[in-house]
Amino acid sequence: MPTVADTPFYNATNNGRTVTYSMRRPVDIDHLFRDPDAVLPIMLIATRISPYSPRDSHWKLAWKVGKSSTGVPVQREIYLVRNMTIQDYMNWGPITKTAEECTKAVEITKMTLANRRRLERIAADVPFRRPNGKTHCQDWIIAVLEAAEQQGLLTRSDWTMAARAVADV
């Protein structure tokens, strides 16, 4: 039976839209840093993009999967990407990459590999809206966390405390 890690997210439809060659998936180094079979902390990460409003901050879910040869942390991330070419969001599924600087990271809960794969599948199934000035990545991350709560992966207090902690970033 194929696992989430074996699922070619980049060949899937993206919010009801067929992904074309011009919509390039971000570089993924999951072939170099596999998600380990261990209990790991799941982080809610917020990065301030604009000084004007915390609603402009970018949110993502992430967990550390290793370190590069130069000591840079490597993490698996779930987030929406803003595609400026077509003025829309893209969900490329989980991406493994070196960690970037962030404004604030808060632990939501700890998960086994099996539960992280379930979280990845939930994120793949949660729809998102087109950019409209009102909804964006923060709303989508909250929807993913609510769906994960409904499936028993985390508690409401786990994710709401984390969301409150990064809400002012």
Order of strands in the sheet with the most strands? Answer: 8-5-4-3-9
Tally of individual domains: 1
Helical content (DSSP H or I, runs of 4+):
10-25%
**Main β-sheet, in a few words?**
5 strands, antiparallel
Radius of gyration: 15 Å
Listing every helix as H and every strand as E from the N terminus to the C terminus, the arrangement reads EEEEEEEEEHHH
- The amount of beta strand, in percent, is 25-35%
Q: How would you describe what is shown here?
A:
By secondary structure, this protein is α+β, with helices and mostly antiparallel strands. The chain has one domain (about 5-165). The chain is about 20% helix and about 25% strand. It is built from three helices and nine strands, in the order E-E-E-E-E-E-E-E-E-H-H-H. It has helices spanning about 115-125, 135-150, 155-165, and strands at about 15, 15-20, 40-45, 60-65, 75-80, 80-85, 90, 95-100, 105-110. The strands form three sheets. The protein has a five-stranded antiparallel beta sheet with strand order 8-5-4-3-9. A two-stranded antiparallel sheet has the order 1-2. A hairpin with a 4-residue loop joins strand 6 (about 80-85) and strand 7. Helix 1 (about 115-125) crosses helix 2. Mean pLDDT is about 85; it is low at about 1-15.
